[in-house]
Amino acid sequence: MSKFNQSRRRFLGQSGLGLVALTTLPSISNAMESMGMGRMGMGGMHNSMGSEVNYPKLTPNKSNPNFHPDVELDLVCKPIEISILKGAATKVLHYQATLIKGPKDTVVDIPHSYLGSMIRLQKGQKVRINFHNALSQSSVVHWHGLHVPQVMDGHPQYAIESGETLVYEFEVMNRANMNMYHPHPHGATAKQVYFGLAGAVIVNDDEEAALDLPSGEYEIPLVIQDKQFDSDNQLVYSPNRHQRMTGVTGDNILVNGQANFHLEVESRAYRLRVMNGSTSRIYKLAWDDGMPMTIIGVDGGLLEQPEVKPYVMLAPGERLDVWADFSAHNEGSQLTLKSLAFSGVMPKMAMGMNRSSLAVGSEYPICTIKVTRKVSESHKLPTKLAKIHRYGIHETANPNNPLPISISESPMSMLLNGRAYEFNHPLPSERVKMGSIVLLEIFHAQSNMGMGGMNMTMPHPIHLHGQQFEIMSRSISGDTSDYDTVREGFIDSGLKDTVLVMPMERIKMIKPFQDFKGLYLYHCHNLEHEDMGMMREFLVE
Questions:
Q1: Other CB atoms within 10 A of residue 297 CB
Q2: The pLDDT of residue 487 is above 80
Q3: Percentage of residues in the chain with pLDDT exceeding 70?
């Protein structure tokens, strides 16, 4: 029995998630330097074109005496050591949250994991988070999926230095959903995430509560990541030019920060909250016994009704809410959650250049699930889940002229709208009016050709900060043989903040820009691409 299962029931008196507290591990004062992660100042960040991105030096945001939080917590990012593989402990980076004020189940630590504390919030709560940087380089926290004011969104201009504290204060405006928090310092996001800085924020609301979905030990988070280890069990992250171009991948699949993850369940329905926390790897999730994937929610929360798929695609930054019913399985039976084979994931010129022996697009196991107890009681899958407020194209400010997000690729240059990242230099198409509803179109430029005329087109998970959007249509041009291996795995009926754009695909979507003015990033969530400068800003004015 895994450590996760041994202590799961003991935890139920403390929290609404099937998790247990992680034993506190000692920090290592020089771990950052030993991992090659020395201090990075505010002015030393570069985009993919080699030019420096300079931000004004800001005084870190302090607490507002007129803001009265319902929830307050301290969040520290620091180096620690933890056992992941057999043998020597691994040096990682870790978010540790400590609750100061609020419901006792607000902060939950994933057992035996380097992943950040899970934070559970309620729609309408006022939240204060005191972020303390105990790293040896600058960092900032982005609340991926949360609709918050620009100053609270984790824009890289607000990155703080080692030893500084940044205070976040916001009201939870999201409907019930699962969000991600992670670093967002330009040029260092991928490395900080790879070494462990990632966590989940779960928002609950009354609409979700009325459904009586599986909860407590029957609501299980599954954060999927891939890592590369050296012979001493230390994480390897030193991407060469080709790995930056394609994204860094590892040959060890970790779930909740553990290798060979094994979960023991009863013969009943579970709610699996799945997140892709990898820096670049795309997964094609399916059950090995042919049981369909039943999806009840995506990035922006519950769907209006469940969707049943043979498999589901999951790109970095995306989340899935999976209904997993094991009631038809006998005691002692075992299932494997796998990533199935698919194609079109890398430019042909880049095939074989990545260091990992576990190729993206190949078939491999994610985790195993064993039914250890036969029971008769179980939750029933609702036929109706939630109401989603939808906009029609006729309600947008630009129904006949979608704002473009053009993807272009060439060796060591991944661009959006033909530009690398520039701070506070929006194009005319990147200026939007606050309160507007906007039609957007993401597409691949036609000139994505590399050396010798080789096509450089590859998939990109595009993440837009701020409010979630709704996908209106997908279209594909040219040879569809690669696309045919993934086309059944997209869930487009829910609200999204990250969308996987396959080669030669065009996606139209509607996004509201409401409530807050300021600079809101949009970028590729292949984090190596983001650090290269595949990132732009919308100026909401």
A1: 27
A2: yes
A3: 87
* CATH code, domain carrying 96: 2.60.40.420
Asked if 365 contacts 286 with a C-beta cutoff of 8 angstroms, the reply is no
Q: How many angstroms separate the CA atoms of 526 and 400, rounded?
A: 30
Instruction: Say if residue 149 is in the same domain as residue 31.
Output: yes
Whether residue 296 is found in the same domain as residue 324: yes
* Residues 6 or more apart in contact with residue 59 via CB below 8 angstroms: none
Per DSSP bridges, beta strands 403-410 and 436-444 are parallel
Residues 21 and 144 in one domain: yes
Strands 219-227 vs 252-255: parallel, antiparallel or unpaired: antiparallel
Residue 110 and residue 84 in contact, taking contact as beta carbons nearer than 8 Å: no
- Of the pLDDT bands very low, low, confident and very high (cuts 50, 70, 90), residue 18 is low
Give the H or E element holding residue 511. Answer: strand 505-513
Give the pLDDT confidence of 49-60 residue by residue, as tens digits. Answer: 444 688 888 999
Residue 61 sits at the vertex; the CA angle it makes with 60 and 64, to the nearest 5 degrees, is 150
The residue with tokens 């994480």 is: 235
Same domain, 204 and 223: no
* Number of separate domains in the chain: 3
Q: How far apart are CA 260 and CA 432, in angstroms?
A: 46
- Is 287 a domain residue? yes
| Domain identity same for 205 and 337 | no
Taking the C-alpha atoms of residue 118 and residue 17, their distance in angstroms, rounded to an integer, is: 9
One domain for residues 78 and 175: yes
Domain boundary among 344, 373, 402: 373
Residues 202, 258 within the same domain = no
Please give the pLDDT value at position 345: 86
269 neighbors 379 (Cβ within 8 angstroms): yes
Q: Tell me which residue range forms the domain holding 50.
A: 3-209
The single residue listed with the structure tokens 């038809």 is: 328
What is the secondary structure of 125-182 as a DSSP string? Answer: -EEEEEEEE-SSS-B-EEEET----GGGTT-GGG-B-TT-EEEEEEE--PPSEEEEEE
**Confidence grade of residue 468 (pLDDT, cut at 50, 70, 90):** very high
**Would you say residue 386 lies in a domain?**
no
- Round to the nearest angstrom and report the end-to-end CA distance of the chain: 55
Q: Does 247 share its domain with 153?
A: no
The dihedral sign for the CA sequence 416, 299, 77, 151: positive
**CB proximity list for 351: less than 8 A, separation 6 or greater:** none
> Quick one: pLDDT at residue 273?
98
Does residue 237 belong to any structural domain of this protein?
yes
Q: Count the residues in the chain.
A: 541
Question: Which of these three, 159, 175, 209, is where a domain ends?
Answer: 209
Beta strands 90-101 and 118-122: pairing type?
Answer: unpaired
- Please, what's the b/e burial string for 490-508 (b: 16 or more CB within 10 A of its CB; e: otherwise)? bbebbbbbbbbbbbbbebb
pTM over 0.70, yes/no: yes
In a domain, 378, yes or no: no
Specify the DSSP class assigned to residue 216.
B
Mean pLDDT of 71-89: 98
Whose CA is closest to 249, among 500, 455, 528? 528
Q: Tell me the mean pLDDT in the region 353-377.
A: 88
DSSP annotation of 419 reads B
